[in-house]
């Protein structure tokens, strides 16, 4: 096991290693988009936006586990997509400022979920990167 992998073992969030948490987050987004689209009977592709963003998070997280020498690169892609989730969720604020919050209940709930989960996930990823940087002396 490389030292970088050992560092990730020392860093856990919600009881998960960062790669596993990222996989779960990607799966959550994929399922959220599908379930909300079905519940709301939406015929619009925009209701699948969480799924479209969750898919690369899932893929890059999985690749970071399987191709350890490229883990740093893949996890940077993961956090970029996590930030996209967060920034996409910020559109909920536009609804609030325009006094149209929850006019489209499913869209606004999805934006709110993206805002909260994307922000939290990005925060966890940044904490992980800080942890790795602080422990860089252990890298070979």
Structure description:
This protein is mainly alpha-helical. The protein has one domain (17-130). Helix content is 74%, strand content 3%. It has six helices and two strands; from the N terminus they run αββααααα. It has helices spanning 3-10, 18-39, 49-66, 71-89, 91-97, 105-134; strands at residues 12-13, 16-17. It has a two-stranded antiparallel sheet. A hairpin with a 2-residue loop joins strand 1 (12-13) and strand 2 (16-17). The chain is elongated, with a radius of gyration of 17 Å. The model has no long low-confidence stretch (mean pLDDT 88).
Q: Can you lay out the helices and strands and say which pair or pack?
A:
Blueprint: H1 3-10, E1 12-13, E2 16-17, H2 18-39, H3 49-66, H4 71-89, H5 91-97, H6 105-134
Antiparallel strand pairs: 1-2
Helix pairs in contact: 2-3, 2-6, 3-4, 4-6
Briefly summarize what is shown.
This protein has one domain. The protein is built from six helices and two strands; from the N terminus they run αββααααα. It has helices spanning 3-10, 18-39, 49-66, 71-89, 91-97, 105-134, and strands at 12-13, 16-17.
Radius of gyration: 17 Å
Fraction in helix = over 70%
Q: How many H/I helical runs?
A: 6
Work out the count of structural domains.
1
Strand order of the largest sheet: 1-2
Give the overall silhouette. Answer: elongated
What structural class results from the helix and strand content?
mainly alpha
Specify the biggest β-sheet. 2 strands, antiparallel
What is the residue-averaged pLDDT?
88
The SSE string, one letter per element, is HEEHHHHH
Q: What is the straight-line distance between the termini?
A: 12 Å
Strand percentage lies at: under 5%
């Amino acid at each position: 096991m490389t030292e970088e992998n050992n560092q990730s073992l020392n860093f856990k969030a919600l009881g998960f290693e960062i790669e596993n948490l990222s996989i779960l987050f990607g799966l959550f987004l994929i399922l959220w988009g599908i379930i909300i689209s079905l519940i709301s009977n939406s015929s619009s592709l925009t209701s699948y936006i969480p799924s479209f963003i969750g898919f690369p998070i899932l893929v890059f997280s999985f690749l970071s586990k399987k191709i350890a020498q490229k883990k740093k690169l893949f996890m940077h892609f993961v956090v970029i997509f996590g930030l996209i989730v967060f920034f996409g969720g910020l559109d909920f604020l536009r609804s609030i400022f325009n006094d149209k919050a929850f006019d489209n209940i499913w869209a606004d709930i999805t934006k709110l979920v993206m805002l909260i989960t994307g922000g939290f996930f990005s925060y966890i990823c940044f904490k992980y990167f800080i942890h790795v940087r602080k422990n860089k002396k252990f890298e070979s």
